[in-house]
Amino acid sequence: MYIHAYxxxxxxxxxxxxxxxxxxxxxxxxxxxxxxxxxxxxxxxLLPKLKDISKVVTKTLDRLVELGLNLNTFHLIGFSQGAxxxxxxxxxSKHTLPHLTGDKNILF
Length: 108
Description:
This is phospholipase A1. This protein is an alpha/beta fold. Helix content is about 45%, strand content about 10%.
């Protein structure tokens, strides 16, 4: 599962590069959390919404696990504010996420 950065959308080259690398292996499925509508808003407006986004994704992830998703092969990746969302998901999920990667860039 990939969670994009602030001011990104699913059509960014960087997102396609990461997803493409996983898909080239032909053994992986990729879920992209598209929060572009909020990610395009002014920074101060989106910060209070990060936990709200994580709650929705956590609920979805927990449901996928109930339906049979194997967390041993699951990798949660977040970039920039997507990493903050990923951290909130890891903290609030009913399940232990064995692979969580966050990369935080600096805006200023």
